[in-house]
Amino acid sequence: MRTISGSIELIALHELTHHMVWYAGIGPTRLWVHEGMAEYFSMEIGWILGYREAVSMHRSEVENVLSTIGSKYGFVQSWSMGSTPSNVIAYYAASYKIFKTLGDKYGGLEYYRRFFKIIKQMGSVNDDSSIITALGQAANNTIEVLEMFKRWGFTGISSIEEIAVIMEKARKTVEDLSILLQPFKLIAQILMSMALEAYSRGYYSRALLYANGAVIIAANAPILCLIMYGIVTLLIARLAYKRRIKPKPVKLELLFCPYCGARLPKGALYCPYCGRRIQYY
After folding, report:
1. Which of 22, 67, 246, 268 is at 20 to 30 A from 255, Cα to Cα?
2. How far is the C-alpha of 86 from the C-alpha of 83, rounded, in Å?
3. Dihedral of the CA atoms 115, 121, 126, 131 (nearest 10)?
């Protein structure tokens, strides 16, 4: 079977792109970025290098797949190295389409040169929000790029700038909580500490999740305290009530006559054998 000229070279370019993306600071956990860029760069550079027959054929195959999945590509967010989707070709195609669309709109390879420069400056790139922020900054329009990803069906994403504002508001909200609203102020503070730690390590989506959790706890702390104190008060009152009520004395019942030792019938006042009165104490 004859191999189309340039096919091997495209595969090599694809694999080299993986190394380049990883070297730039984007780990393989963001598989949609790795595979999307590998597909995009292998075809763009392959075309420039003259492997046009192989590029045209591969691009046609990808376009055929894209025609079956519509315009929602957010499903690639769940793509991980630990599992292979049954329709993995759709994941490759959708990831490619994302970077192809951005490249066509904002300047092709030059756009991605700016993107990688921003990635290197950021240092830590561990989630979708940071990657999308860098793509937006490279396009000089973070809001527009963010909205594109939302239209594509991506969830749980915000620009780093937005997350920073939310984090600051959350921190102030937690700090302003009265100390009387314990232990919920402490819980909110712990969540806020986790948010700041995640943010410092580049896990921006996780930081946003923790910060939102801290705000929810802080906003509902008065109600939660009322519920908690109410439950504690009821438990204390119930315990005190139980202690005040004296149990009714239990009337002892003898089984045998203390005088003659004969077995007594139930409830007997006199021994049927010796005739003595039975004393209950």
Report:
1. 246
2. 9
3. -20
Classify 250 in phi/psi space as left (phi over 0), alpha (psi -120 to 50) or beta: beta
Identify which of 201, 169, 175, 203 has the alpha carbon closest to the alpha carbon of residue 188.
Answer: 175
Specify the pTM.
Answer: 0.67
- For tokens 């700090």, the residue is 175
**Sign of the torsion angle spanned by Cα atoms 128, 130, 135, 141:** positive
CB 102 within 8 A of CB 139: yes
Q: Is 7-155 a CATH 3.90.650.10 domain?
A: no
Q: Where are the domains of the chain?
A: 7-155, 162-244, 251-281
Asked if 95 contacts 128 with a C-beta cutoff of 8 angstroms, the reply is no
| Rounded Cα distance, 127 and 227, in Å | 38
Task: Tell me the HSE value of 169 on the side-chain side, using a 13 A CA sphere.
Answer: 12
At 237-253, the pLDDT tens digits run 888 887 776 666 666 66
Using left for φ > 0, alpha for ψ between -120 and 50, and beta otherwise, residue 262 falls in beta
Query: ∠ CA(56), CA(149), CA(198), 5° rounding?
Result: 120
Cα-based torsion angle of the residue sequence 7, 13, 14, 15 in order, rounded to the nearest 10 degrees = 120
User: How many residues are present in the chain?
Assistant: 281
Q: What is the per-residue pLDDT across 47-77, written as a single tens digit (0 to 9) for each?
A: 999 999 999 999 999 999 999 999 999 999 9
pLDDT in tens, 133-189: 999 999 999 889 999 999 999 998 887 777 788 888 888 899 888 888 888 999 999
In 66-205, beta strands by DSSP E? none
